[in-house]
Amino acid sequence: CVRAQSSNYFKRYHTARLDELRIFLENEVWTPCPVRDDFSLLHLQEFRGLRNSLQQYAGVSPVQVPSRGSGSLDGSSIGGSFFTRYTTSESPFDSCPDIGSLSQDENILDVTDYTSGYFSEDSDEENTELTGGVTAKNHRNKRRHDCSGPLLTNTTLTVLRHCGKYLQMSRLLRANSTEVVVCLSQLFDYYLYAVYSFFASDLPAVTSSSVLSLKLQATLKRIKESLTPNPKEEDAIEYKVGEPSMSVVVDLNSNETLHGLSERVVAVESLVFLADQFIFLKPYLEHLQPQSHTLHVLYNQSVSVASEVRRPVYACVAWRAVDIRQALTLMMRVNWEVKDVESKHSSYVDFILRDLQIFSMRLEEISKHVTISQPVMDTLWANIAQQLADIFVEGFSSAKKCSNGGRGLMQLDWTQLVSQIEKMCSLRPIPHKEFVEAYVKAYYLPEQLLEAFVRDHNEYSSKQILALVSCACQTNKKLRQKLTSLIEDQERLGTR
Fold first, then answer.
1. How much is the pLDDT for 122?
2. How far is CA 469 from the centre of its chain?
3. How far apart are CA 139 and CA 147, in angstroms?
4. Domain shared by 76 and 103, yes or no
5. Rounded CA gap, 37 and 112, in Å?
6. Which of 313, 188, 199, 208 is nearest to 246 (CA)?
7. Greater model confidence, 351 or 171
8. What would you report as the CA-atom Rg of the chain, rounded to the nearest whole angstrom?
């Protein structure tokens, strides 16, 4: 029957598109595609026939989307004669324009971005006329990535184009709408999985637990199990696609580029943009498939965690901002048994600040070439703040003995660092500040409160807590043994 034939065709078509998406991802160099500032999926030709319906279900006012195309593809113009337009060797999906005709059918490009390679000599001449003789060359240095448009790649556009084609088919063949919703979710899932696997692969194991939410971990595991092939599976399962490999052109190892920060930003923010577009589609998809479990999983497990990918990916840059080993080595050389409270901070603080200043300068240089939004900037500095807090507590825990003057020096060092970080970023208060301050203040706690601190604060490692107990209980061997036994019990029970 027609339904079975269309279903089989769509399955084959979607399988081919997944393979194509893998190839796109493996060849993607993660540079921004220069789209107009207000770009959305409504500007794509594949969504022209759905614009009114999408806007209606999204509850937004119809927007005039500029296009040089002459014919309307709105749903009202499509009737029973739709399939007569195609021969037996063609399909509705073959009508997508090629790249050469995009300028005639779409208006998605940022025509003021003269640095891109998307324009021909004709477009340069046209822009010269429109600006009264001001040439692109004169603007090239003035405007590089000074636009406020969304960050997305050619692969992001490809995913959106596939979504438009799939929705066209679901509108024409409503019986296949269930499969369409499943396949739309797989396109998003695969893009999310690729971005994470490409750009969070260099995340240290000790850091991953603190920057990876349980929800994101569960989502990544589900995608891997449902979409990527398992060598142990003997029978082929529908819609399996190989794990993508990042292009060798992408360099994530250079200190000067902050380990590929530009590419990481484009990748993650393009994922966030894609999630926003799927949120816009949600009311229409719920109209196609009311109370759909697939839609529930898509929006509650995949789309909702897109922004959470920022933290682990940008943590891969943040943990390299400071030479951790050298910083800890310098902290071990500090004399924490000074009698009087020092008026000047320790030299290791200056070492850390020099590293942060270099990071800040490189970050400023990168921001000249790719837009770094405030959420991205805040995530970067929040990750750095967490890294610094871990360094300080670990360094303080290396002290074998510590006097009151030494504790005062610890507070002075941390206060100095925080005051300088506040000049480099806009985060207020500095995240994880309390993590360090609570550890230092614990040295002053009386016996009963110290025991409660050890029992309640499992965010510190056993080594760090043992060092605290050793210093705080230098003259009370009985209490030291009691608290040491408590820490060992916590380790045995897995509560620390």
1. 40
2. 40
3. 13
4. yes
5. 10
6. 199
7. 351
8. 28
Residue 111: the pLDDT is: 60
Q: Tell me the mean pLDDT in the region 461-485.
A: 91
Q: Would you state the structure tokens that stand for residue 373, as one six-digit string? A: 């939004």
Q: Calculate mean pLDDT across residues 207-230.
A: 90
At residue 239, φ and ψ (nearest 5 deg) are 60, 40
Q: How far is it, in rounded angstroms, from Cα 266 to Cα 246? A: 14
Tokens of 461: 């490692």
| Statement to judge: residues 163 and 220 lie in one domain | yes
Tell which residue, 412, 474, 483, has the closest CA to residue 452.
483
How many alpha carbons lie under 13 Å from residue 111 in its C-beta half-sphere?
A: 15
Q: What are phi and psi of 109, to 5 degrees?
A: -85, 150
Assign 244 a pLDDT band (cuts: 50, 70, 90): very high
Residue 112 has pLDDT above 60, yes or no: no
Q: Closest Cα partner for 244 from 22, 20, 16, 27? A: 22
Q: Which of 242, 239, 106, 266 is nearest to 184 (CA)?
A: 239
Return the closest-CA partner of residue 57 out of 171, 195, 197, 188: 171
Range with the lowest mean pLDDT among 24-38, 67-81, 245-259, 309-323?
67-81
Q: Could you give the number of structural domains in the chain?
A: 2
* Nearest-angstrom CA–CA distance, 340 and 442: 19
Mean pLDDT over each residue of the chain, to the nearest integer = 84
**Do 9 and 86 touch, CB atoms closer than 8 A?**
no
Q: Which of 132, 266, 259 is nearest to 201 (CA)?
A: 259
Percent of the chain with pLDDT over 90: 65
On whether the CB atoms of residues 330 and 348 are closer than 8 A, the answer is yes
What is the rounded average pLDDT of the residues 447-465? 93
pLDDT (0 to 100) of residue 238: 63
Q: What angle do CA 304, 305, 308 make, to 5 degrees?
A: 135
Last residue of a domain, which of 295, 312, 329?
312
Contact 162, 187 (CB under 8 A): yes
Single-letter amino acid, residue 235: D
The DSSP letter of residue 401 is -
In a domain, 47, yes or no: yes
Q: Give the domain range for residue 326.
A: 321-444
